[in-house]
Amino acid sequence: MNDESPVAVTGVTKKFRSATAVRSVSWSPQRGEVTALVGLNGAGKSTLMRVMTGLIKPTQGSVTVPAGQGRRPLSAMIEAPALFTGLTVRHNLRIHRILTGAYPDDVESVAALTRIEQVMSRRVRALSQGYRQRVAIAVALLGSPAVLLLDEPTNALDPEATADLRLMIRRIADRGTAVIVSTHMLRELEGVADTLAVLHDGQVLYDGPFTSFVGPPSLRVRAQDAEATARLTALLRDEGIPARQVTDGVRVPADGRDADRTARRIFTTAAASGIGLVELGHITPTLEEAFHAAISGARS
Ligand SMILES: Nc1ncnc2c1ncn2[C@@H]1O[C@H](COP(=O)(O)OP(=O)(O)OP(=O)(O)O)[C@@H](O)[C@H]1O
Fold first, then answer.
1. Is 3 inside any structural domain?
2. Where do the ABC transporter domain residues begin and end (predicted)?
């Protein structure tokens, strides 16, 4: 764990009687960053979050949460928000303020951060799903937690409420909290999350910058037939071009300004050897392609 990580997960495995939900996960989300914890249904996201909160004990490994230096060390919203639906929003916040030992001023500051000031006097049961979710997050923010875990917070939200939530998550992280948000929808936190952690079958397959996950663009080359494709791949490699044969042709990494020059070299090499090209174009992998590639790599 470094100075920037307010929580460290070390070698955590969680076994249930019939399933291993989390396998040897080591992970340390960073202060001031939004981390998207992405995985298919059953990948182990909720279990990992529950272990991080201390709700369940790991079978192996440990979770270290240093003292919060005046802040609450860790707070979470997992499953349905625990709100008193017959009470007003302000009353809910005041009760949780006392339960968490937060400062009285915190009630107004979390209300401002989650933009719920205009519903403070309304009963929770009269609120829309989007506002209930905001109130639940406001409750979780009492005491300025160093780490905030949100488990599938956009479930049941409409697109507008989801967009609001994305902005809110960013604002919270910008105040120095490590915000970890689980979702099974890869694109949901694109543009908001700094870091992506891909969980599959209980294991972390990728943990790094969100923007690096898809990898660089490449050139897609298709020759007239399989024999020509294999020959072209070998010729390009002889020329020092890192060509890779794939099922539908040849891929050549091609980033930025070099891409056009590399494309011309491929064209010239093919023409000089009498290889007919059926296709030569740029491709940028999508998030989904990168995700499926990561998962199928783990399966093989
Ligand atoms: N209390 C439990 N007892 C037995 N098995 C469990 C328990 N909790 C989770 N599991 C199993 O552990 C695996 C991971 O479940 P988990 O709920 O952590 O995944 P998830 O990524 O949060 O999925 P989802 O997106 O569907 O909520 C699944 O196979 C699940 O059936």
1. no
2. 7-226
